[in-house]
Design brief:
globular, mainly alpha, about 65% helix
């Protein structure tokens, strides 16, 4: 990739988004787990559950603060690095962003403050209500940003106004109920629930291995295993829905994920592994599972999934229509007023306007798309293919980790149901080692979603290459390096604070804090008694 302004702006936004997304999933999931734990505390009155809420709430607070610090910059980047994009879609994109800001900085932040400082000022039920409202606010904050992102993937409820040169909202309810946005929301928050569950599971397993806080750890593991298993299974179901919607609205993304260069007879097979070769336009050493991709992408055994070559051929036709729309748009703009617009130009734009974005793909090769050569049109059509190897492997890493986490949470659910959490060291060690895996999976998911949309910043409407601000490459590179450095420091600070809080632990004699409690867990001989019993 050439390091021009477009590439550097994409790298900068990707870096800030990937860093920010290190904090978001844990915030989403821990907020719900805290609400569940406090509900049990209010119902039972047992102090161990209150200590659980306080302890995990401390880790939630550290993560929440870092998420806010990294998230603010992302919204400013739309104006700093993507000013033409902001001008082009501000009427639509600004509404969910504003609502997300209201959720995050008013509703969510207000209840976060009450959660931490209201223990001695609110009744048990009152504090429980605050905790649930904090969790709801946290998740609804994610809803609005994912509605905005979903609209970029599938722009509904809007139309282009040739006189103002902007996209304008015509149906807010359609934007709100965008099926792609709704599927992304439930899929993303479910992934956050899995992330938090595995985090709680791993940290609790570490406590059991060290012989610390057995009452807190075993109860936390039971909650995390149950919640995590349900969430991990829902991620699979909701991921299937995302795949189906991609088959309907983002056919090129689906073909690239599968490295499907040619259209196959229905039902298409799923490529388990292989080595995509963009130069040869084939996938080497591919291992296929019959029928699976057809079921995921079309939910039928008779509907074809078009391959990359056929989609590129379709794109050539769209680009030719887009060039006609661009020419008609220039006549409309030159007319100066609605009354002076030539009827032929108006008619040509109405006929070809939906393909204007495809015409703008030619801007990479020629200033006036109406003057593009057939070779330039072919090149622009192949630009509609995202980087296939990146999508192919990112998707499979995400799915592979997801399946492993189902087995992990399912295994601990079974162990907790049989009260055998402390019997062996190796499952606990596995849980500790698995802590980073959900983050890897969600980052791969982000890559699939965003790289798969390229070369569009708004699918089929506005190419990424024409959406950037008028900045110098050196300016963008400097801010990219600066943000990367700052975010790396913030990430290291987060890790240090989290580890410090985890090592310190609940600090309660009955929970086996430093200097208290049983010895570290060791493998018991067959038939031996457990290393410890839960302390109330």
């Amino acid at each position: 990739m050439e390091l021009d302004v477009v590439a550097l702006s994409r790298l900068q936004f990707a870096a800030t988004a990937l860093y920010h997304f290190l904090f978001v999933p844990l915030t989403l999931g821990l907020s719900i787990l805290l609400a569940v734990m406090e509900t049990v505390y209010v119902m039972t009155g047992r102090d161990v559950w209150r200590r659980m809420v306080v302890f995990w709430g401390t880790l939630f607070g550290i993560n929440f603060a870092m998420g806010v610090a990294t998230g603010i910059v992302m919204e400013f980047q739309f104006g700093m690095n993507w000013s033409y994009y902001s001008h082009y879609v501000g009427d639509i994109f600004g509404a969910p962003l504003a609502l997300e800001g209201l959720m995050a900085f008013f509703l969510e932040a207000t209840f976060v403050g009450l959660f931490f400082f209201g223990w001695d000022k609110l009744s048990r039920v009152g504090h429980l209500a605050v905790t649930w409202l904090m969790a709801i606010g946290t998740n609804f904050s994610a809803l609005w940003i994912l509605i905005a992102n979903g609209w970029m993937q599938f722009p509904v409820g809007s139309e282009f106004n040739p006189e103002t040169m902007r996209m304008e909202m015509v149906d807010f309810f359609a934007v709100l109920m965008n099926p792609v946005a709704q599927a992304k929301f439930v899929h993303t928050v479910s992934a956050g629930y899995v992330t938090a569950s595995v985090f709680v599971l791993g940290v609790s397993a570490w406590y059991l291995l060290k012989g610390r806080s057995p009452a807190l750890a075993k109860r936390s593991m039971t909650i995390a295993a149950s919640f995590g298993l349900c969430s991990a299974l829902s991620v699979v179901v909701l991921g299937d829905e995302s795949g189906y919607l991609s088959g309907e609205h983002q056919k090129m993304k689906l073909a690239a994920i599968e490295a499907m260069w040619e259209t196959e007879p229905a039902p298409a097979a799923f490529t388990l592994v292989g080595f995509p070769d963009p130069e040869a336009r084939e996938t080497h050493y591919a291992i296929h599972i019959p029928y699976v991709m057809g079921l995921i992408g079309t939910r039928s055994l008779t509907t074809e999934i078009p391959g990359i070559a056929d989609l590129v051929q379709n794109a050539e036709g769209h680009i030719r229509k887009g060039a006609l729309a661009y020419g008609a748009l220039q006549e409309i703009r030159a007319a100066g007023s609605s009354a002076a617009i030539p009827p032929a130009a108006r008619e040509a734009f109405e006929e070809n306007g939906p393909w204007l974005g495809y015409g703008l793909l030619l801007k990479r090769y020629v200033d006036d798309p109406t003057q593009a050569t057939p070779e330039q049109i072919t090149k622009a059509a192949w630009d509609t293919v995202p980087h296939v190897p990146t999508l192919f492997w990112a998707f499979r890493i995400m799915v592979g980790i997801g399946l492993f986490l189902i087995l992990l949470t399912g295994g601990f659910f079974w162990l907790s149901a049989r009260r055998r959490l402390e019997k062996r060291r190796w499952p606990l060690q596995l849980a500790v080692l698995a802590i980073p895996l959900p983050w890897i999976a969600v980052e791969m998911g982000w890559i699939v979603a965003e790289v798969g949309r390229q070369p569009w910043i708004i699918e089929g409407v506005l190419p990424t290459a024409v959406a950037v601000s008028n900045l110098g490459a050196a300016t963008v590179l400097t801010t990219l390096l600066g943000f990367t450095l700052i975010y790396t420091v913030l990430f290291l600070v987060e890790i240090k604070l989290m580890l410090k809080a985890i090592r310190k632990g609940p600090q309660h004699p009955l929970d086996g804090g430093p200097g208290h409690g049983p010895e570290p867990l060791r493998d018991a001989a067959p038939g031996a008694a457990p290393a410890f019993t839960p302390a109330e």
